[in-house]
Structure formats: structure tokens, C-alpha cells
## 1
Amino acid sequence: MAVNARKVVFLFWSTLLIGTVAGTIIGLIQGIGGYFMVIVTAALWTVIAQMGFFAYLTIHRFGLGMFKSVSLWNKVQLVIIAFAFFDLMFFRHYFFATDDETMLGYAIMPTLLLVYALIVAYLKAKDTNRHAFIPALFFMYVVTMIEWIPAFTGNDLNFIINAVVPLLVANTWQLLVLHRLHEMPNGRQPTVEQWSKWEKEGFEERKREKETKKNRKKARKNA
């Protein structure tokens, strides 16, 4: 199983194209700026989504290595999702709410984002395996929210929507297409059992590496 350079290039350019087109369409509908500015803005948000995606891939592997358990790492991600939901609601209300606005009104945006993230996570888990649901949910919710933060500075609804569309489109495409780039030698997609086997082998390999390092340290101390 491998993702070669050609596939990485395909993922980058296809994501950039899809995200930019989606952002350009929503920008033109909103009538924000000229054509060039709309395209550039959409492309910038798409690039931010790409950086967030590859950053999460690194964080995910780090989390698995640190907690040494898929179940524990997933629980940690669920806790972070809950905090992110509250933060998006609370801090927007704290900084931008008027005297007659309640916090409940500021729960609409994080709720809609959560619903969308749940749908995408379900599709990801359906295409791969059930263990992919929470990581996919975390990426679509928490990572998208972090990428989205610069759009909240002015509390301009048009700008917020203009930013979230390319972010969501790009992140959805990256998440749902990544496993399809992992092809078997016969050209078929890995089965659920194969994904589980590779995941187990990865943990066992890291465990052996740690044991080897530990034994080397003991050997050096005893020498």
C-alpha cells in the first residue's frame, strides 16, 4: 500500500481546483470584490485547508503513538470536539453579541458545522471502517474550525460564509479521496479487514521499535 508522488500531486491540484471553484462561485453569488480578488481569496482558503489536512495527518499519527490506543485517542478527540463546539459558541457571543442577543443564537453555526461533519464522517467510515469515524469527525469539525478562525475577526457573515465554503469543500474532498489513493497491487481498494490489519501491524511495529530502544539503553547502562 502506497501513495506515490503522482498521487500526492493529484491530491494537491485537484483539491486546489475544487476548493477554488467552490469558493469562487459563492464569492460571485455574494458579489464580494472583482473576479480576480474572488478567485485569489478562494484559492487562499483552499491552501489553508490543504495545510490543515496534512498537519492533521501528522497530529493523528502522533496521537496514536502517544496514547498507544485507538480507543483512548478517539476519546481524547471527542473531548476536544466538545470543547471546540463550546468555544465557537461562547467566544463569538462574548466578543460580538449585543445586549439583546443570547448565546443560543450563536449555537447555530457550530451546530450546522457539527451536522455537516457528522455526515462526512459517516461517509468516510462507510467507505473504510468504523474506526475512521471519530478521526474524520475531528478533522471536519475541529481542524475546519481552526482554519476558519481568521474569518471571524470582523464578524462579517458574508466573509464567514465566503471562507467556510472552500474550506468545507476542500476538506471533504481530501478526506473522502485519500483512502481511494491507497491502491492494492491488483488495483483494488483495501478491504475493511486489510485496513484493520495494517493498523494493528503499525502498532506492533512501533511497539517493537520502543522495546528495541529500551533494550539498547539497558545494554549501554550495563556496559
## 2
Amino acid sequence: MHRKALSQAVLVSGLAALGGLASTAVATPPGPGPVPVIAPDGPDRGARQPQAAVDAEGRIFVAFGRGNTVRCAVSTDGGKTFEVATVGSVDSLALGMRRGPRVAATGRAVVVTAIGGKEGGGRDGDLLAWRSADGGRTWSGPARANAVDGSAREGLHGMAAGPEGRVFCTWLDLRGGKTELYGARSEDGGTTWEPDVLVYRSPAGSVCECCHPSAAYAPDGMLYVMWRNQLHGSRDLYLTSSTDGGETFGPAEKLGLGTWPLDACPMDGGALAAGPGGRVQTVWMRDGAMFAARPGEAERPLGGGIQGWTALGPGGGYSVWLERRPGRLLALIPEGPAPLTLAERANDPVVAAAPGGRGPVVAVWEANAEEGGILSLVLDPPAGDAAR
């Protein structure tokens, strides 16, 4: 497992240099406060690395790891309450620093993926997928997505749900001795997986070795994949797309106009979202500062911070990030000119919206490390929801 990683101190040094929105964020979101997905004093106290998905019916799914077990919490009442079920277990689950389960909701099923092996610690690891056809109450699987044993052992991956039950996974792959980007698609809601394909190979040999990749489907079926590259001495974010659901991919395109000369991995892969009309939104970190960017356009500074995530919901883009790790959790929503403070101490947040940019939009994060637990907050519920 590659560990030439950039230190927290170096990342945080970028905060003061940028200043801007994050340093002045004092507003708090309207309505009720965060809801416990996992209570700090319950049986899942050790829950880590939550990921969220929202289906077309507005149900919220939160997958997380606890030890070597994958679990999933489900809310059918707009994020007011959650019920938890076990998805599956492995001998050694990749968990921490954005390693952990991913969750996607299709019209046919809910799919949870995770990377696990017999030994762990970067010595082995396969990308495994479980499937639920009853809204997260019971689970079948796992099925393996990577074709070569142990090639997903870096433990970092992303997943997206598309039209007609299609699911796509992308991961950092080590089958060739270098870190490359591979992917695999399922046409039946995660039951079976097509042979995996090379998404991108860096001319320099490896992409950034410890930053997770991301994937997103647009409503028309266009698939996008984003990753941090290692090219020309810099660690910048790149994007590629597929018009055939993940069988083939087009040329890689650098995001933003600036660059980050760096000979280390910042362990921060950002996130992307895709909406109607070809809209693609990405959020990512460069040198301790957060940016939003669309393909072919200049990046827009959001403020100092790290570990960003984004989703397209009602009215536009919703983004969350941390001032530091762990630290203050900030959110930028369409109707707000400045970030909101969601929590004073949080870790590794995500945000998710229903397909096609509908509500609810929900942020989920690891709570205060000393207290444990996972919290959520609905940022934009469906129209007419009294919880607003």
C-alpha cells in the first residue's frame, strides 16, 4: 500500500493563504439539527466512513463499516429515523481515509460495495458487491467486480447508479505493478458484473496512489469518472467520460486552469455529480483550498478546506467539506451565498441527492471522534415536506 502521503500540516497551511468563504462561515442551516444515523452509545459505536445514496422514492441509504462488517442504515421518512441491517462481512475490510463501503440505489435494487481480503493492509483486496431487492432489509452476495485476484488492494474505489438498473464501479488497480484506473459495470443492479476494463493509464506510470476515484451517471446514461492524476510533476484532477455505459472511455481532460506541483499523495480525491443537459459539477482540493469546476471552465474557489463532496439537487449544486480533518463541517447550497456550518467537529462528509437532481438532499458524516457515531442532515427535502 503506497504511503508517500502529504501531511495534514502541509494541507492546512493552505487555509490561511486562501482565506475566503470558509474562514467567515458562521451561518447555521434552518430547521431541525442533525439526526443520529448511528448513535454514539449503541452497538455500532465504531461505525466509520459513511456513504449515502437517495433513491427515486426519497429513501435514504447510508452504508458504513464497523470493524470488518459492512452495514447499511435506511430511512423511509425523509431522514428522521434510520433502521440498520448487516450487509456482509470480510476477513479484513479496507476502512479509513476514504477507504470503505459505497452505496448506490437503482430502480431495481440497492447495491453496496466494499474492498476486502484475507490479510488486508494492502497485501490483498477485491472489490465485492452486495445487493438488496427489498429496500435494504436483506442482502445477497457478494459478487466480485475485479477480474484479477487482489488487484483492488489499495482499497480505494467509487460507484455510481445509472438508468435501467445499471451500476458502475471504478477503483485504483495494481495488477500491473503500477496504480491504474479500472472499472466494471453491472447491467442487472449488481447481481453480476461484466469483465473489467482499463479506464485510464497515466503516461507517467501511475495515477495518484492514495486518492479515491469517483463516478457519476447523468440521467441520459452518460458516465463520468474523476481521479487525481500524477502527471508532469503535478497532482491535478482529471475527468473522462463514456457514451456506452462504461465499455470504453474517451480522452482524459484536466479540470481547472491551475496546477499543483507535488511529489506526494494528498489522500483527497474530491467528488463529482452529473445532471440533465450535460451538466457536470466537480469539487476537489488543491493545496489546502477547495474548488468547484466544470469541464472546460476555470475553477471557482470555495475557501480553505479538505475532503470535499458534491451532489446536484433542487436548484443546483450542494457541496460539503471540512476546514480540517477532523474539524468544522461546511456546506454550500444553491440558495446560500456563503457556506453554512453543519457541525463544529466532523470527519469525512458526503452529500447525496435523488436521481435527476430531486430531493431530498442529505449530508452524512462521522461525528466527533471522541463521541463516535454517524450524523445526517437533510439540506433540501422534497417540496411540501414539513421537516424543512
